[in-house]
Amino acid sequence: MLLKSNLRLLLAQLDGLAETPYFSSELDNYIKKIREVLNELLSRLEDRPLKVDLNIARSITNQLWRLTQFLTGSTAKKIPYEVVFAIEKAAKDWKIDNLLITTAIIQEANFYFHSSNREFFRSIEKELGPVIN
What we know:
The protein is mainly alpha-helical. The chain has helices spanning about 1-20, 25-45, 55-70, 80-95, 120-130.
């Protein structure tokens, strides 16, 4: 099944990242939680009968790929601290909490801000159990 193959690929990437801890304990914890979700999802897809709706599993998989795309190319160990400081300060002023900042080396001199709906994380908790804050 393609879905399980995609999950295993994503899990392998995150397993590799987990072997070289980030400077940020928040990023380490985030990767740990995402890996828990992936392992639980794979386990439920292995069960017969399936213990997860395939549409929900596909949706979770797509979201997790999107959420982790900047982790795999991250330069968080060589993070531009001044930029991170400015973003964190602005986020506090804007009353944004639970902010994870990653950086990646790309050809463009642009910034990309990406977030995920809190409902997505609640649906993971409801469907699979792991809690991602």
